Amino acid sequence: MSIVVTGGAGFIGSNFVLDWLARSDEPVVTLDKLTYAGNPDNLAPLRGDPRHTLVQGDIGNQEAVARLLRAHKPRAVINFAAETHVDRSIADPEPFIQANIVGTSRLLTAVRDYWTGLPAGEQARLRFVHVSTDEVYGTLGKTDPAFTETTPYAPNSPYSASKAASDHLVRAFHTTYGLPVLTSNCANNYGPYQFPEKLIPLVIHNALAGKSLPIYGDGLQIRDWLYVADHCDAIRKILEAGQPGATYNVGGWNEKTNLDVVRHVCALLDELSPRADGLPYSAQITHVTDRPGHDRRYAVDAGRLRRELGWTPAETFETGIRKTVLWYLNHPQWVANVASGAYRDWAKKRYET
């Protein structure tokens, strides 16, 4: 048996693949388009490992996906493949529509066709796990209850709208065709191998480079923060025991303002890699014009996942963020490699002008 992981060279996907093969000898086929955020170096520990196959390809290429499924005969497909950065979606929604909506539709069609051709026993065993985001639910007021699996969708950015559409397609393929799907909607992830366009690695990278630490607006936007290894653990449990057709919210029970997160990272850097001039890294914080349609608060109720599948996060924000900062400090070459070229040009345009 084997599993196929789409988007497995990206941030969450690569963490999942590495964690899976650290725990199991079941082979993994990673399918990734290898765009700017899909990085083969994320999977460097698996080079030469016969249990892992990396295939460069696009989930939107239905024929190529169909050939891959026929060749490797997986028992599960876990779909991480997506365009995910809100800022980029505001600048240009089209890649998000193509990757997250059209790509998911074609991937689902290929998996459905593969599934219908399987013997009955293998059909019953196959699972399609779709990894999504809490941003599909929109925004919350400060005292509103957290998002549950029945919260109505109300996406506010092109990114979250494209993910909402992909979620609806997954649900429709289950209802219409009976495809055994599972959907997870997760909180903000952080941890190793995250591309430095997202808040935490951006702050670490800019702080060490002596650059400003840009915070949108007043910085009091609230997010629920989830360490990526805990997310990977949740996905494994959803794959193993989730009810086909069900949705599971994955949260860390760690609501923090963006400003508090940045200050916490700065304090850790003060401790672990202090500035030569003795000043705190928080002196580099700069407030910039807020982005359009910026959601004020996300909070995730992961009670269903806890009740039905026995999952709770192993890391608090304090333990997870320390592990994250240490990882980036111990992997300067990885950071240097990804923070060059196209990323450098994007960051300069977005945050420095």
In short:
It contains 13 helices and twelve strands. It has 353 residues and is of the alpha/beta class.
Helix share bin:
40-55%
Beta strand %: 15-25%
Major beta-sheet overview:
7 strands, parallel
Order of helices and strands: EHEEHEHHHEHEEHEEHEEHEHHHH
Q: Structural class, from helix and strand content?
A: alpha/beta
For the termini, the CA-CA separation is 51 Å
| Computed CA radius of gyration, to the nearest angstrom | 20 Å
Uncertain residue ranges: none
pLDDT averaged over residues: 95
Strand order of the largest sheet: 3-2-1-4-5-6-10
**How many runs of DSSP E, i.e. beta strands?**
12
Number of helices: 13
- The coarse silhouette is globular
Care to describe what's here?
This protein is α/β, with parallel strands linked by helices. It contains 13 helices and twelve strands. Strands 3-2-1-4-5-6-10 form a seven-stranded parallel sheet, sandwiched between helices. Strand 1 (3-6), helix 1 (11-23) and strand 2 form a beta-alpha-beta unit. The radius of gyration is 20 Å and the shape is globular. The model has no long low-confidence stretch (mean pLDDT 95).
